[in-house]
Every structure is written in C-alpha cells, then in structure tokens.
Amino acid sequence: MNSASNRFLSRRGFLAATTGLAISLPMRPARASAVDERSLKAAPSRARLAGPDRPPASAWAYNDSVPGPVLRLRQGQPVRITVENGLAEDTTVHWHGIRLPNAMDGVPGLTQPPIAPGAGFTYEFTPPDAGTFWYHPHADSLVQLGRGLAGALIVEEAEPVAFDRDVIWLMQDWRLAADGQIAGGFGSAMDAAMSGRVGNLVTINGMVPADQTVRAGERIRLRLANAALARMMALRFEGHRPIVLAIDGQPCKPHEPEDGRLVLGPAMRVDIALDMQGTPGGRYRVIDDFYDGLAYTLTTLAYDKAPSLRARPLDAPPALPRNPLPEPDLHNAVRQEIVLQGGMMGGGKLAGVGGMMGMAMPGVMGSAAWAINGMSMTGDGHAGMAPQFTLRRGATCRLTLRNETAWWHPMHVHGFSLSVLSRNGSPVPHRQWQDTVLLAPKDTVECAFVADNPGDWMLHCHVADHQMAGLMTVFRVT
Ligand code: C2O
Ligand code: CU
Ligand code: CU
C-alpha cells in the first residue's frame, strides 16, 4: 500500500474516540449449564469506515454493525445463536476455528441448506476451546465478507485469566472507490489468479484506527484477528515486546515472535501479552510492513501522562491454560498430501500495485484459476464434490500442505486444529496449533490432527478470491 493508493489512511486526525477499540472483560456469572442465547441479523447497512466526516459506505452488516457484535461466549457453556437473513441473497454463518458438530459448521450445501432471504437458522454448539475466533458467512463469500459481514467471537476461559485489559482488534481491508463506497468488481480475473482483492483502507473494529490510548505499566491481552479478504499483515510494535500467547485461539508456549513481527494471513488470529513499558506521554507506532516497500502505520499507541500503574515491570506472562485438544498419534498416522496448484506465473506478495489494481476485467467467479491435487472446487462449498480423502474416526492424519504456486496462501481447515510439526523440513519451535496455516510460495508444511469429529469438512485457502476460484476441497471423517 503506497501513499497514493492509500490516501484514506492518512485521514485519521479527526478521529478522537478510541472507546470502540477497547473492550474490557465483562463480569458474567459462570453458570455453565444455562444456554447462552444470541441473535444475529445479516442485512444491508452503512458503515463510517473512513471516519465521521466522510459519507458512510453502503455495507452489509450483522446487527447493523461493521464488524458485527463481538460475541463473548464461555468455554463449555452451550450457546444458541439465531441467524436471520435480511439480505437479498442466500447466506450462512460459519464459526471460524470452533470445533463443533458438522451440522453447525455453516457450509451451504455441505453441512446445511443455505439460509434464503427472509429465512433463519439456529446454530447450537458448546465451544470446547477458549480463545479468539471469528464468524463470517460461507455463501458468496468474497462479496459478503468484502461488504462487511464478519465479527469477532471470543470464548472466555472457564477459569478467568487476569489481564489489566482485554482488547480485540478485528482488522478488515477495504477497496474503496474515490467516492468512499466499496468498489465493485469482486472476483476480477486479476485478483483471482494473483494476490486476491487487496484493498486500500485497513480498519480496526470498523474504523480507520485512531490512536490507541494506553497507560504506562498496564498489561493488555491484545487479540489480533485478520478478517481481510486477501491482505496479509506483519505487525511490529515500536518500542514494545509483544509476547505471543495463542495462535488461532490455541495457547502456545509464550514466546517473542521471530524477528519481532506478528505475521497474520487472512483469517489468522494471534493473542499477545503487551506490557506497556513506554514512557508516559510517549507515542509508539504499530507498523504493518508485510508488503515490501509498502509499510504503513496501522495505528499509534498513545500513552497518557499518568505515571506507571506499577512500580516495577511484571514478570513474564504465564501460559494460557491448554484447551482439550486430542493428541495426535504420529506413529500410527495416515498420511495425506494437499498440493496447491495454479495461479499466474511470476508471483510475489502483491499484484496490481498501481495501475493494475481494480482494473475492470470480466468476472471469473466460478471459473478455476487454482486447484488442489489437480481438482478445482469453486464457490463456497456447494458443488457436490466427492471428498478428497476419507479418514476413519479417531485416526491421526499427518497432513502435508505443499504450495507449488508462486503466491501466498493461508490454508484453513474446518472443524479441527492442526498441530504444526515442521516447515520446509525444520521443526516448528513452539508447539503450535492452527486452523489456518500460512504458506509462502513453494513452502511445505507438515501438520497432524486427530479425526475425532465426523462429517464432511472444508479445507480451503482463506484468500477469498482463491477460494472462489478453485483453491478448496472437502475431506470426510466417518
Ligand atoms: Cu473462515 Cu471456510 O472459513
Ligand atoms: Cu473455518
Ligand atoms: Cu490462496
């Protein structure tokens, strides 16, 4: 993103309110048996993405809010979420990263019929894992997600974990036209076969980020979620040392990220402990420099003048409690390989910087630019394709993801968390469980999981354009 293509990002001086960015942990009685009732309505709405002095953009929203409301659920507590469709097209809701019964997974034609306009569907599940997740439609995904339908889903630990503040940053990337409206042209051939629809405006919790007001000495649990269609991010916190506590909702050994940057492909989440060790009154930038030469300031940590909350720095943050994930049995594992193929030649991180971006091209929605193991499944999952492979319930699967293409792909598996074993032959240093594994061009990543949950499950790239254009498959657990 250069300054020319990102004129909206500099227009943040007028934004004063930061309250929308900080959500403190509500106190809720831990009554694990009662069913938590929630409701979501997807419908056309408007969003002031670029700030209060700009005309609002027409958007699609859950409960009239972009992003949708933060759903804070509790680990082990059953929830019933009633979804109403106020759009003029079919939709569903997928609870990204939650291990739940197949019928609740929200994939139209595969796990449920689509929710027709005016109709509804009730999702019921009990989140087994605490952590940071999110929800989004799984129908006409590129357009519905790209017009704003997404929200954070936080599952609180059964036993609360103490931080001074618990903050979510749900990041979305928009391609706005000159009039401030969301640009059309979803699914252009250019986007589909290259880096996907990377936009020109990044928001945090639905707004161009203002300064984030912080207090010296406080320890924040910051939940980062990349809800972009295609934009990858690599965040650096100037003057701070974030400690990674969880990846894709699953706790890991607390560690500093490699080269200090937090890399988030679309759909990925990272929870960090952020100790405010800066100076009262100081200002520190949060920089995204994923795309070479296109670094920009996402937001600024603005310290108030108050003296530090603490006389001396805190000890290193403790690990979060582990979730009840089944342990893979690597010695008796079934091996499967997923090979990613297709896309344009050349490659790199970003296509269409400058002139090519947003170029009018005939839509290729439904046509295939990509393939998995030689087969292209396009759309959202409704094409009744035979499963790529079938696993016996309870078996451990050693899954190799091999990227033969020249592009980056955040590969996402529904219904399971993958234990990430190695990348390009080197063991992954901290035990990591991920539902979305980012593959650089030519990367090979080996993962393992226990097929403990029966049903037909999606496995796809979370760059929405890639998913729609063939980088998707299904596997079955019987
Ligand atoms: Cu975020 Cu098919 O999922
Ligand atoms: Cu998912
Ligand atoms: Cu991809």
UniProtKB/TrEMBL annotation:
GO cellular component terms, semicolon-separated: outer membrane-bounded periplasmic space
Keywords: Metal-binding, Oxidoreductase
Domain of life: Bacteria
SUPFAM superfamilies hit by this protein: Cupredoxins (SSF49503)
Molecular function terms, GO-annotated: copper ion binding; oxidoreductase activity
Entries under InterPro entries matching the protein: Cu-oxidase-like_N, Cu-oxidase_2nd, Cu-oxidase_C, Cu-oxidase_fam, Cu_oxidase_CS, Cu_oxidase_Cu_BS, Cupredoxin, TAT_signal
Pfam families: Cu-oxidase, Cu-oxidase_2, Cu-oxidase_3
Region (Disordered): 36-56
Record domain Plastocyanin-like: where: 55-158, 167-287, 384-477
Name the UniProt record assigns to this protein: Copper oxidase
Organism lineage: Bacteria, Pseudomonadati, Pseudomonadota, Alphaproteobacteria, Hyphomicrobiales
